[in-house]
C-alpha cells in the first residue's frame, strides 16, 4: 500500500517532468473529442471501468488465495462467490419484488392523487372543471336525451409487456455475465498490465520508477475505497433492512438493498433513499410521527456511516474536496447515467493521484485537493 501523505515532502521529487506549461488549442480539442468519445461509447467504457475497479478491489483476496491454489482457480472462486451472493440475495427478495411489481401501478396512482390533492393549483382546476360540468348539464337539461355515450377502454397487452420485461431482464443478465467474465480475466492475469504500463512509460529508470509508484498508489487508494464502499454498503443495507422491518415498513428487504446500493453515490444516494422511504411511510402509515421516524432513521444510518466510519476507514485515501466530488458526480451522472454516478468518485481519485505525480498537472492536483 502507498505511503501516507505525511511523507510526501520527501517524495515531491518523484514527479514526471514536462516542459510545456500552456494549454494549447489542440489539447483543448483533444479533451473535447475524448469526452465526446466517452459519451458515445458509454455502454462499453463504463462497464469496462467498473470491471477494472472491481478487479483492483478484489486483487488482495485473489493474492491471498493464490498462495494455496493456482491463481486462475483463486480468481474463479472469488468471482463465483460474488455471483452466488447476488443470486442468493435476489432469490430471498424475489417474493417481495414480485409483490411490489404487482402493486406498483396502484402505488404510483396513489402518489399522484396525493400530490394532486395537496396542490392548490390542482384543486382550483378541479373546481373549474366541476363548474363547467354543472353548466353543461343545465344547458342540456331541456334537450332530448341523446344516445348513450360509449366509453372505449383500451386493453392492456399483457403478453407484450411480459416480453418487454423479459428482454430487459435478459439484457441485464447477459451484461452481468460478461462483466463477471471480464473481472475474472483481469484477476487471473495478475500484474501483467502493470508490467506492460511500466514498460511503455519510457526508457529511463526514473520514469519507470515513477510509473510504478503512481500505479501502486492508485491501486492502493482505489482498492481501499472500493473495498470500503462494498462493506459500508452491506452494513448500511443490513441495518436499514432490520430497522425498517422492526418499524413495520413494507418491503423492508427491498429498502435495505436500495440503501446499500445507493450508498455508493455521494450525496444523491442517501437523499433518494430518505425521500423514497418518507413517501412510502406516508402511503403506509399516514401519520407525521411515523414519517419522521422512518426518515430520521434513514438519515441517521447514512450519517453515521458517512461522518464516522468513512474518515476512519479511508483516511487520506479520499483526499479530494467535497466540491470536486459533487461536480464529478453531476458530470459523470450526465455522461453515463447510473454507472457514472457510481464511477465518479473513483475516477476523480485516479485523476488526483496522477496529477500528484505529473508536473504539468500540479494545478489540477491543487484544485482537487482538500488541503487549504
What are its keywords?
single chain; mainly alpha; 372 residues; disordered N terminus
Task: Summarize it.
The chain is mostly helical and 372 residues long. It contains 14 helices and no strands.
Residue share in helices?
over 70%
Distance between the termini: 26 Å
Overall pLDDT level: 75
Indicate the structural class: mainly alpha
Radius of gyration: 27 Å
Instruction: Outline the low-pLDDT stretches.
Output: 1-21, 151-158
Number of helical regions: 14
Describe the 3D structure.
It is a single chain. With 372 residues, the chain is an all-alpha fold. The protein has a domain at 59-97 and 168-190. The chain contains 14 helices and no strands. The protein has helices at residues 25-40, 42-65, 71-92, 94-118, 120-139, 158-189, 192-200, 205-247, 252-262, 268-284, 288-314, 322-336, 338-357, 362-368. Helix 2 (42-65) crosses helix 6 (158-189), helix 2 (42-65) packs across helix 8 (205-247) and helix 3 (71-92) packs antiparallel against helix 6. The radius of gyration is 27 Å and the shape is globular. Mean pLDDT is 75; it is low at 1-21 and 151-158.
Give the helices and strands, then pairings:
Blueprint lengths: L24 H16 L1 H24 L5 H22 L1 H25 L1 H20 L18 H32 L2 H9 L4 H43 L4 H11 L5 H17 L3 H27 L7 H15 L1 H20 L4 H7 L4
Amino acid at each position: 500500500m502507498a505511503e501516507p501523505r505525511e511523507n510526501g515532502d520527501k517524495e515531491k521529487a518523484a514527479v514526471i517532468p514536462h516542459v510545456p506549461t500552456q494549454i494549447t488549442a489542440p489539447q483543448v480539442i483533444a479533451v473535447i473529442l475524448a469526452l465526446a468519445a466517452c459519451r458515445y461509447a458509454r455502454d462499453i467504457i463504463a462497464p469496462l471501468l467498473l470491471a477494472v475497479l472491481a478487479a483492483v478491489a478484489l486483487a488482495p483476496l485473489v493474492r491471498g488465495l493464490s498462495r494455496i491454489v493456482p491463481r486462475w482457480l483463486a480468481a474463479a472462486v472469488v468471482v463465483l462467490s460474488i455471483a452466488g451472493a447476488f443470486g442468493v440475495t435476489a432469490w430471498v427478495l424475489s417474493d417481495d419484488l414480485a409483490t411490489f411489481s404487482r402493486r406498483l401501478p396502484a402505488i404510483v396512482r396513489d402518489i399522484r392523487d396525493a400530490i394532486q390533492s395537496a396542490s392548490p393549483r390542482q384543486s382550483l382546476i378541479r373546481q373549474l372543471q366541476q363548474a363547467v360540468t354543472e353548466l353543461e348539464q343545465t344547458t342540456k337539461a331541456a334537450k332530448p336525451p341523446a344516445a348513450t355515450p360509449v366509453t372505449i377502454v383500451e386493453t392492456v397487452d399483457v403478453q407484450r409487456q411480459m416480453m418487454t420485461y423479459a428482454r430487459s431482464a435478459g439484457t441485464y443478465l447477459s451484461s452481468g455475465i460478461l462483466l463477471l467474465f471480464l473481472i475474472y480475466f483481469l484477476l487471473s492475469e495478475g500484474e501483467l498490465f502493470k508490467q506492460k504500463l511500466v514498460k511503455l512509460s519510457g526508457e529511463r529508470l526514473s520514469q519507470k520508477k515513477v510509473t510504478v509508484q503512481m500505479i501502486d498508489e492508485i491501486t492502493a487508494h482505489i482498492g481501499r475505497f472500493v473495498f470500503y464502499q462494498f462493506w459500508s454498503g452491506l452494513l448500511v443495507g443490513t441495518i436499514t433492512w432490520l430497522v425498517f422491518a422492526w418499524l413495520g415498513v413494507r418491503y423492508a428487504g427491498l429498502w435495505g438493498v436500495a440503501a446499500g446500493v445507493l450508498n455508493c453515490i455521494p450525496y444523491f444516494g442517501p437523499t433518494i433513499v430518505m425521500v423514497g422511504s418518507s413517501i412510502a411511510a406516508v402511503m403506509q402509515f399516514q401519520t407525521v410521527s411515523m414519517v419522521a421516524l422512518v426518515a430520521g432513521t434513514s438519515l441517521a444510518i447514512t450519517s453515521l456511516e458517512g461522518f464516522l466510519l468513512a474518515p476512519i476507514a479511508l483516511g487520506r485515501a479520499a483526499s479530494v474536496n467535497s466540491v470536486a466530488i459533487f461536480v464529478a458526480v453531476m458530470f459523470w451522472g450526465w455522461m453515463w447515467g447510473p454507472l457514472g454516478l457510481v464511477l465518479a468518485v473513483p475516477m476523480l481519485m485516479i485523476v488526483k493521484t496522477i496529477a500528484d505525480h505529473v508536473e504539468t498537472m500540479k494545478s489540477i492536483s491543487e484544485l482537487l485537493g482538500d488541503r487549504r
